[in-house]
């Protein structure tokens, strides 16, 4: 009898262990889902945005910093920035199976960082290599590279029609404008801005780019049509990190690693609210309905939830060591 009990117990434990190792099925994943990069653990976390529970974790390359989603919301592209050794790869992750299905080797292109999906292609920066590139998922290869000639090419935004690309260049105090000509060639212009431009955001109407400076606490507003700085704001941040427009284009959120998120009126150019947050606020994601913002808290190893109606933090949830890039996966 004892032998039978032990056998049943052993079988139960084995089955439990197998069940725990099986990832969530596609049917179990929420739609939409919140994607969070945990760069200290080298992984991507899939989170239920309602319950705020981490449902799955997927290994990536070393020190993943930024993430972009395919247009259908099924695939995540992750820049493996690297830690002490500069990274040179992009992880391609199937969210349904929660597996890395491809790791794109970028060869001598180092420190991939900012990422944007546009027109079925993935545009990315390479900070160490001072360039931007484009990856074609259908061909499974990088099909275009172009240098900025600037130091620390960090983040980028792309206009809806893909005709203009703006990059923030931290070390050169500039934003580079790539403007596609009628013949398909690209004109490249370095736009002088404030000290240490890092966060960058394109307004939903495609008319303005906001460049948040990490070293002088300012914000440069660039007119997309002319490529000129039309106004500079004194945000007085300790170190601006990211910038995001709300979907209606009425507000701009700036994360300050010093411990807060600033909410600007896009038209008034005035600070509407300082929202204190724990840790080091970094990556920002605003939900498509504009109701909430999720903010990676870096050293606090968590993500904050911000109610954009009351402009207050309403909660936070743990994700793991050093949260950073965020994305919204909706099919």
TL;DR of this structure?
The chain has 331 residues and is mainly beta. The chain is built from 1 helix and 28 strands. The strands form 7 sheets. Strands 3-2-1-28 form a 4-stranded antiparallel β-sheet, with no helix packed on it. It has a 4-stranded antiparallel β-sheet with strand order 4-5-6-7, with no helix packed on it.
List the helices and strands and how they pair.
Blueprint: H1 2-21, E1 33-38, E2 43-47, E3 54-59, E4 64-69, E5 75-80, E6 89-94, E7 99-105, E8 112-118, E9 121-126, E10 131-136, E11 141-147, E12 153-158, E13 164-169, E14 174-180, E15 186-192, E16 197-202, E17 208-213, E18 218-223, E19 228-234, E20 240-245, E21 251-256, E22 260-265, E23 271-276, E24 284-286, E25 292-296, E26 302-307, E27 312-318, E28 323-329
Antiparallel strand pairs: 1-2, 1-28, 2-3, 4-5, 5-6, 6-7, 8-9, 9-10, 10-11, 12-13, 13-14, 14-15, 16-17, 17-18, 18-19, 20-21, 21-22, 22-23, 24-25, 25-26, 26-27
Folded structure, characterized:
The chain has 331 residues and is mainly β. The protein has one domain (25-329): YVTN repeat-like/Quinoprotein amine dehydrogenase (Methylamine Dehydrogenase, Chain H). The chain has 1 helix and 28 strands. The protein has a 4-stranded antiparallel sheet with strand order 3-2-1-28, with no helix packed on it. A 4-stranded antiparallel sheet has the order 4-5-6-7, with no helix packed on it. The chain is globular, with a radius of gyration of 21 Å. The termini are far apart.
